[in-house]
Amino acid sequence: MAKGKGGGKGKEVVSRFYEIKGDRVVRTRKFCPRCGEGVFMAEHKDRRTCGKCGYTEFKR
Predict the structure, then answer these.
(1) Please, which domain of life does this record's source organism belong to (predicted)?
(2) pLDDT at 58
(3) Does 53 appear as a known binding residue?
(4) Burial (CB count within 10 angstroms: exposed 0-12, middle 13-18, buried 19+), residue 19
């Protein structure tokens, strides 16, 4: 299967950001506080970062 545009390294499937619990949909990732709802933050080993504005939260 050939890769199309946007299939590069680091791209994730958005459906991984949600979980179904019973009859509800639950978000598994945090939204960026600067950009607002709809922009998820990336999960790293020691931090969370926003790819849009660069906001970073360090984990303890």
Answers:
(1) Archaea
(2) 96
(3) yes
(4) exposed
Residue pair 59/49 in contact by the 8 Å Cβ criterion: no
**pLDDT tens, N- to C-terminus, the chain (60 residues):** 455 555 556 666 777 888 999 999 998 889 999 999 989 999 999 999 999 999 999 998
Q: Which residues lie closer than 8 Å to 32 by C-beta, 6 or more apart? A: 39, 40, 41, 50, 52, 53, 55
Is 50 annotated as ligand-binding? yes
Cα distances from 7 to residues 2, 11, 21, in angstroms, run 10, 7, 29
Domain ranges of the chain: 33-60
